[in-house]
Design a protein that fits this description.
single chain, mainly beta, Rieske Iron-sulfur Protein, 1 helix, globular, binds FE2/S2 (inorganic) cluster
Amino acid sequence: MSLDQARFVRACGLSELEEDTPKRVELDGTPVSVVHTEGEVYAIHDICSHANVSLSEGEVEDCQIECWLHGSSFDLRTGKPSGLPATRPVPVYPVKIEGGDVLVDVHASLSQES
Ligand code: FES
């Protein structure tokens, strides 16, 4: 097993995820929202970049998760906000599915600042 593989940890079982319903988990001390939508599983940091609000309590639509407090949506693939008031991306993490388990590497953010 390579070092990279060792950093993936089990978030939950794939069967525990309901389509378009975020599931909050804590992985190595990091709150993560795991989302099954449009046939893919995504992992995004669970705290909004605008204020300390849990994104997993928001709604999922068009591969975006919406912050329930002020309505910014974040792209589950890139973490980028699509509208104000949030201006900074939220970290998104690599996901692997193995044997019915959802594995996430919270040490490798896929987000790109821009
Ligand atoms: S706290 Fe999320 S948009 Fe304001």
